[in-house]
Amino acid sequence: MTELLGVPPEDFPTFRTWTSDIGLVFSLALGGDIPARVEAAVTGLYDYVDGLMAAKRAAPGDDLISALVSIQQAEGSASRDEMQNLIVSMIFAAHDTTRLQLANAMVTFSEHPDQWKLLGENPELAQQAVEEVMRWRPSTNALFRYAPADFEFRGESIPKGTMLLVGVQAVQRDPQAFPGGDVFDITAPRSTPVLQFGGGLHYCLGAPLARLEITESLPVLAARLGAPSISGPVSWRPAIGITGPNELPLRFG
């Protein structure tokens, strides 16, 4: 994504830290060092993007930020702040969720080596395997919504405007919503879509790209490498928000 946007290669490591830390914005309630890390990432990323936009205006390149800046200059349809916010959103949304979903996929297959072998022998199952991985261990494990009207749920009164936190993984393993959902099976047809991309007007614009990236990755790995196993300690990001392993040492075969 940094290559597509036009970020110089020497800045990739810094971007990786910022995009990882900014994703913790959904876990602010947990306190600790999370608020400070998020603030530092937001400040750093916005300042950097501001400078990068200025550089692209002065010397446009063959990249997405150059194209956006050129259009903004020609049409004036978006303010500088709007353009800056759009670019920051693309950087953040295009990286953290997808890399953690791929990591979650590897954790899942380490627990189900038979399914890894099945995918390696049947690459045509790739798209279905991706949907099953996202259902079983989603990198976005919570949806934030507001009640559009007063309602009651299991004896609990929910006033209009109440913010609701929907536990994605719990729903997606519920056999009532996903028949047979308490079992990880890349061959099982699932008619219910996963929740983490949202829906309707609030559907994730990057969903096709995220699916494509993981769909390209998994069958290549499964065809060339034996089943993954975790070969060292793993610590995890908070379960609420964008979640997955901070580090994932793996051994294949």
H-E order: HHHHHHHHEEEEHHEE
Percent helix: 40-55%
Give the integer mean of the pLDDT values. 90
The geometry reads as: globular
Give a nutshell description of this structure.
The chain is mostly helical. A two-stranded antiparallel ribbon has the order 1-4.
How would you describe this protein?
Strand 2 and strand 3 form a beta hairpin. Helix 6 packs parallel to helix 10 and helix 7 packs across helix 10. This protein has two domains: 92 residues, no CATH class; 129 residues, Cytochrome P450 (Cytochrome p450), CATH 1.10.630.10. The mean pLDDT is 90. It is mainly alpha-helical. The chain has ten helices and six strands, in the order ααααααααββββααββ. Strands 1-4 form a two-stranded antiparallel ribbon. It has a two-stranded antiparallel sheet with strand order 2-3.
What's the layout of helices and strands?
Layout (H helix, E strand, L loop, with lengths): L1 H4 L6 H11 L11 H25 L5 H12 L4 H14 L2 H16 L1 H9 L4 H11 L5 E5 L4 E3 L2 E3 L4 E5 H5 L34 H18 L3 E3 L19 E3 L1
Antiparallel strand pairs: 1-4, 2-3, 5-6
List keywords for this structure.
two-stranded antiparallel ribbon, 6 strands, 10 helices, 253 residues, single chain, Cytochrome p450, globular, mainly alpha
